[in-house]
Amino acid sequence: MHDRDGWIWFDGKCVPWRSATTHVLTHSLHYGLAVIEGVRAYATPQGPAIFRLREHTQRFLDSARVYRLELPYSAAVLEAAQREVVRQNQLTAGYLRPIAFLGSEKLGLFPKGAGVHVAIAAWSWDRYLTAASERGLRVKTSSFARQHVNALPPRAKISANYANSILASLEAQEDGYDEALLLDTDGFVAEGPGENLFIVKNGRLFEPAPTSALSGITRDSVATLAHDLGYEVSERRLTRDDVYLADEAFFCGTAVELQPILELDRRPIGNGEPGKLTLALRAAFDAAVHGRDAKHLDWLTPV
After folding, report:
1. Residue 264 near residue 249 (C-beta atoms within 8 A)
2. How many whole angstroms separate alpha carbon 93 and alpha carbon 123?
């Protein structure tokens, strides 16, 4: 990732890609306190556009607030910066990674005195789990639980949370699966390592009550699209056997977009094929992000 041409917005200005570096004694590298976002830009008939830029930027600011990181930039500046890095890198579509982190001004658990730095990169990147996405996903329930709501606040998207996700993904993929499903500390379904979950049962969509999961922006978009198609969406505590007995199931998120789950723990979901509603929602999502859905053009910010 470090050895490429391009530009990264770093502390208020675009710098050459290879120059966007930081010191090995950076506070966030040692203690994991960095706020991140995952954002996508898509090709549309009107040119490249960033999907739900306002909502992603607000979540970035909200995550910083939870962890008392005082960002030196407003929402307007951050939105403009994300548009700028897409333009500077001449992308028609791509992935954006904003990050706010504590610098190398000091070390030690108490963070006061370390400066807050902000960087935003953008590059061409296909969807996560691309190799599996053509057929759908084989998923394993992880032996690692999603952390308790009072351990690490789930509404904040911080880098430390993803150590838990890495453990779950490594376990699943080394056991021959495509992805993991994490339960919360009470044994109820939480989410994937980097995705939210939906199941379909008797023509209705259900999602886990988001007590231990990130409130995903793609998740919110999918729920809206489901309502557009006339389907009811409900939140409730889900168990593993709720997923086993579902008619359909799928993961969704900025990186993965929307991918059907074919089986969980070697039990086929429904008939073991991508479900009709899952495919309809994926098509609706694809139309929305590429500017072919007039109803949701407000989700797109032209670059």
Report:
1. yes
2. 8
Confidence check: pLDDT of 32 > 60: yes
Residue 87 has pLDDT above 90, yes or no: yes
Q: How far apart are CA 35 and CA 101, in angstroms?
A: 7
Q: What is the pTM of this model?
A: 0.95
DSSP track, 200-260 = EETTEEEEE-TTSS---HHHHHHHHHHHHTT--EEEE---HHHHHT-SEEEEEETTTEEEE
Which token pair is 257? Answer: 């977009």
Token look-up 């607000």 returns 58
8 Å CB contact between 155 and 35: no
Residue 170 burial (10 A CB sphere; 0-12, 13-18, 19+): middle
Q: How far apart are CA 150 and CA 209, in angstroms?
A: 16
Residue 293's Cβ-count burial label (10 Å; 0-12, 13-18, 19+) is: middle
Q: How many whole angstroms separate alpha carbon 73 and alpha carbon 64?
A: 12
Kind and range of the H or E element at 171?
Answer: helix 161-174
* Length of the chain (residues): 303
Helices and strands, number each (H, E), in the chain: 8, 17
Assess whether 140 carries a catalytic annotation: no
Distances (CA, A) of 280 to 34, 115, 247, 255: 36, 46, 14, 19
Burial 192-229 (b: 16+ CB within 10 A, else e): bbbbbbbbbbeeebbbbbbebbbebbbbebbbebbeee
**Catalytic annotation, pick one of 13, 157, 201, 295:** 157
- Alpha helix ranges (H) inside 96-143: 130-133
Q: Measured between alpha carbons, how far is 254 from 256 in angstroms, rounded to an integer? A: 6
Taking a C-beta distance cutoff of 8 angstroms, is the pair 35, 100 a contact? Answer: yes
For the segment 193-206, what is each residue's pLDDT rounded down to a tens digit?
999 999 999 999 99
